[in-house]
Amino acid sequence: MSATSDGSGRKNWTVELRKRAVAALPPEKLLPDGQPAYMSSWIYVFGVLSLASLVVLILSGSILALKGPTWWHVTGIGHFFNSMHLWSVELFFFFMVIHLWGKYWMAAWRGGRKRTWITGAVTFLVAIPCALTGYVSQQNFDSQWISTQAKDAMNAVGIGAFFNLLDFGQMYSWHIFLLPMAVVALVAAHVLLVRKHGIVPPFILDGHEQVLAAAASDGAEAAEAADAADAPDGQPEPATEAPAPPTGEPEPTG
Amino acid sequence: MSRAERKREDEQYRTWKGPYRPYDLIREASIAVGVVLAIVVVLTILFSSPDDAPTTIQSWSKAAPVDFVSVANAELDGSSATAGYGPPYNTNGQPQQILGIKPANWFGVTYPIDTAQDYVILPLMTMTSVPGLQNAVKTYTSASSSQQGKWTTAYDSALAKAKANSDGTVTVPGNSASFGPVETMMSSLLADAQSGGLDGNLLTTKQFYQTDYTKILMFLQDDNGDNAAANGGNLPDSANPGYFFNRAQSENLLGDQWGMMNETGSWPGQVWLWLYTFWYQIKPFSTSANADILVMAVMGVLSLAFVLIPFIPVINRIPRWIPIYKLIWREHYRQA
Amino acid sequence: MAAVFNLNHPPHIAHWHFIYLSVPNIIVIVVMLVAFALAILLPFPKHKVDRSPS
Question: Is A162–B107 a contact, with Cβ atoms under 8 angstroms apart?
Fold first, then answer.
């Protein structure tokens, strides 16, 4: 529904936001059903595995939150969900770091993707205190030790004056609400940036530039033919950005 | 490459103009969640997770009564780690500094702890039915601070030869008169600790509901085996740990055991903290009283650099020079 | 609910000069490196390349 301007000359914030959102992320970009052909490596699954680990972290954490912080100490089923939460953390960092290694060696910040790198790196850095607040919320010997040791680093830089690792109530609040919200917001920004800018193309090797340029100019006609044949699940052209034609390369014989 | 050349080079990576193939984003994400869930459930069934029961004042004072009494004495005479910590607990010590800057001083005392009052005097004053105790406390509190120091110092020296008895009490050899009222105070405090009363006392505040364990945890962590003021701060001393630190040492959690990375038992821990703990192992950090602020500064700089890798010369070119990318995109290069 | 493997005992430690790493942590690090190497080296299923971008 879009109403016409109210005639006052005042900008409608809602319309502005909608226009900018749709321009940045039209539906076919937000939820594409194609991916660049060069994505033929298992390294590419580590991003979605990191995301999946975060989902399992939040699910297992939510179940722990349902019953409160004492439950997992006194029941077997509670301990089971606590174990799931702990192993999800291990997997989250496991997959995220391998994803990071892959992205570094691909120099994935190229082509206007620096903010994608930045949001990903900041997510890693925020996940660390999120984990720390979790460890000190366990209410066992490990929490006692970690909190009394790590407090020195907090105090030394001054934030210990208002971020008290020894205050269970505060740490629990940060752990189950504030920091997960921050992580989720950062991951959402990161994923939306990936959707907006696309996956970084491969480095162009010397000599290949001419091959790709020639293929690109040949590909426009092939693209139209392919679209016509593709009618059942053909996608409408994106509203604003002109679609990039395929190179029209022959199908691999393999 | 000039800056303009670099910019031009970078622009050609902005949009992929090459071929695509069909792909189901939601299906892939759903499969990923299923796979991770399955792995997590399997790991849980195989390995579960640790849950070491917390140390209490009661468990500590029962297992190591001489150790407990020596820490309590240090709290009383102000030689414990907490007593001399400085902000945010008190103003008795200097906080850590870097280039002369002491950030802890900017925010001052936000969790005030007076170790003599909070850990000894006030709990003893609630024990009104113990014969002679209130008189002993009054004798102590009305004495001059130099007299108080003479008593606690004499008691501390004698504790080096103290013995734990089977009934949980402690026998401190030497001239009782030189200890003044301190011996009575300490033995009453020990009894209170062993009964569990001191745990409760240290958790009580003006509020009914309690979620802040600062006071009691600071008392527990003062048990580092030496009087921390003499130890240059509260660096854990693995050569002579007290009960609490001893427990941590047996779990490989001490600083020089790279404890930050470790979980209790044989579970994998926090491997991602390897670089944080690494700095503490080498000079100048390993021998510095300002180790924490120095390490945080180094890690702060490195973290910022990590976030800004795309902008950092040389670092942002390494992926081109060490062409792991040729392996990742080998299919693409083969077809091109 | 007891675990299949009881990990509630001190771990083996790799101790060399100031390096002090628990074997479980070393296993995690090694598995990460192996996973990274395999992810890059293992062949990926081939797909038909035909579509224009959607």
Answer: yes
